[in-house]
Amino acid sequence: MSLLKINGLRKSFGGLRAVDGLSFEVAQGEVLGLLGPNGSGKTTAMNLISGALHADQGSILLGTDELVGMPSHQIARRGVARTFQLVRVLGGMTCRENVEAGMAFRPDHKFGPQAYDEAMQLLSVVGLSDVAETPAGDLTYIDQKRLELARALALKPRLLLLDEWLAGLNPTELQVGIALIRDLRAQGLTIILVEHVMDAVRALCDRCVVMFAGTKLAEGETAAVLAQEEVISAYLGAPHV
Length: 241
Known about the structure:
Blueprint: E1 2-13, E2 16-27, E3 31-35, H1 42-50, E4 57-62, E5 65-66, H2 72-77, E6 80-82, H3 95-103, H4 113-125, H5 141-153, E7 159-163, H6 171-186, E8 190-194, H7 198-204, E9 207-212, E10 215-221, H8 222-226, H9 229-236
Parallel strand pairs: 3-8, 3-9, 6-7, 7-8
Antiparallel strand pairs: 1-2, 1-4, 4-5, 9-10
Helix pairs in contact: 3-4, 3-5, 4-5
């Protein structure tokens, strides 16, 4: 059963059409890879789904809810959470307070003491329980990425959008990150994963959608899509003859 249905999605910036007629579906409980070279429109698509940008045309259905035209805070309350390619944490607040802030935007919102235990549990999930009272701005870049994921999970999302969340991890951290995403999927979470780390894509993604110049270049089972000549060419460039 599809949780997300995208149809004919378009977004332009002046004369640049960043997303051009994009259509695909994501099944409940699936990890879908959204792939493509830099500038292909992946992050713009994620911004349209989450409401950070508004589509010029098209439809984004989450279950029966039409997200196009809906403000981002209402989309969050309907169960869409995300991380960003460039990490965004509330640097002057502690890690625990950052996670508690995420709980304010879900239907059963929690504040103050009621949120404490759940925030600590989520920090433990991402390996940050020891720095719960540390200001987020004092964390390393990698730990800020962990914190951003914990804050996203605080929304209790139905759909999680991960924009290059695994980028920059060392090999050990990468395996921990892959295991964490697998655990989230096992709990029934649906995930769209924008990623350039192909080991992670092969390990995690049931299917992939590949974008190029704002359009959908390919879609299907991961191994088959990554073996297509046009996909290889889009990533690596056409071979010289």
